């Protein structure tokens, strides 16, 4: 499970259209925005996000290509055929048009449940000789019989003592600040860890 609460400012790159929910046949509006990202090695990539909110034609007419919006909402991440898809669910009170001079940004928090990579946890020290930990973990996204892995890299400053569950192959529940970048021409997910605990995945029937 990966869930992010984010605040985004970006340009609309796909004008809004009206669709109907398959669950209850209610109308909702969806449109696209694009956020430019820069990686640690100065790689550049446009992160495309699909925004959805309740509404009909009157709401859709507002969000046209080229306009800039500020949006707060819940960002969900899916992966299919090796490509990640980002969907941002908002409500009318959490989105507004902004000036063209408003800077691009995406910031927020991330909640994660998944499994630590088999390489385990690496301990490092910063310039002031303070200990911190680095590790990667993955969440599984299933598309039919196909399994996809969504990776998150964790930076854990001021780690607590006695957290023996932070080890290769262990399941964890974690949350912290979301940091987005670029790795191998794809969006990378980093978390500046605030809280972490053991997690037991539900047993399969």
Please characterize this protein's 3D structure.
Helices cover 2% and strands 65% of the residues. It has 205 residues and is mainly β. Strands 1, 2, 3, 4, 5, 6, 7, 8, 9, 10, 11 and 12 form a twelve-stranded mixed sheet that branches. β1 (2-20) and β2 (27-38) form a beta hairpin.
Keywords:
205 residues; mainly beta; twelve-stranded mixed beta sheet; 1 helix; 65% strand; globular
End-to-end span in angstroms? Answer: 19 Å
Strand content: over 45%
- As a percent range, the share of helical residues equals under 10%
What's the mean pLDDT score? 92
The number of distinct helices, counting runs of at least 4 residues, comes to 1
Query: Segments where pLDDT lies below 50 for 5+ residues?
Result: none
Overall outline: globular
Structural class: mainly beta
Strand tally, please? Answer: 12
Largest sheet: 12 strands, mixed
Order of helices and strands: EEEHEEEEEEEEE
Backbone CA Rg = 19 Å
Briefly summarize what is shown.
Helices cover 2% and strands 65% of the residues.
How is the topology of this model organized?
Blueprint: E1 2-20, E2 27-38, E3 44-54, H1 57-60, E4 68-80, E5 83-89, E6 95-98, E7 105-116, E8 122-125, E9 131-143, E10 146-157, E11 171-183, E12 186-198
Parallel strand pairs: 3-5, 10-12
Antiparallel strand pairs: 1-2, 1-4, 1-7, 2-3, 4-5, 4-6, 7-9, 7-11, 8-9, 9-10, 11-12
């Amino acid at each position: 499970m990966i869930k992010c609460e984010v605040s985004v400012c970006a340009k609309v790159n796909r004008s809004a259209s009206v669709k109907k929910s398959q669950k209850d046949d209610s109308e909702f509006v969806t449109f696209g925005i694009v956020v430019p990202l820069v990686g640690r090695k100065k790689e550049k990539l446009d992160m495309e996000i699909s925004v959805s909110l309740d509404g009909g034609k009157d709401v859709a007419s507002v969000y046209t290509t080229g306009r800039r919006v500020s949006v707060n909402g819940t960002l969900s991440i899916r992966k299919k055929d090796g490509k990640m898809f980002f969907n941002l669910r908002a409500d009318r009170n959490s989105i507004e048009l902004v000036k063209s001079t408003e800077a691009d940004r995406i910031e927020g928090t991330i909640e994660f449940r998944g499994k630590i990579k088999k390489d385990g946890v690496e301990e490092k020290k910063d310039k002031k000789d303070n200990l911190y930990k680095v590790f990667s973990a993955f969440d599984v996204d299933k598309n039919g019989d196909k399994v996809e892995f969504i990776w998150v890299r964790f930076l854990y400053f001021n780690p607590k003592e006695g957290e023996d569950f932070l080890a290769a192959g262990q399941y964890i529940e974690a949350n912290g600040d979301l940091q987005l970048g670029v790795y191998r021409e794809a969006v990378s997910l980093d978390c500046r860890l605030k809280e972490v605990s053991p997690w037991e995945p539900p047993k399969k029937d």
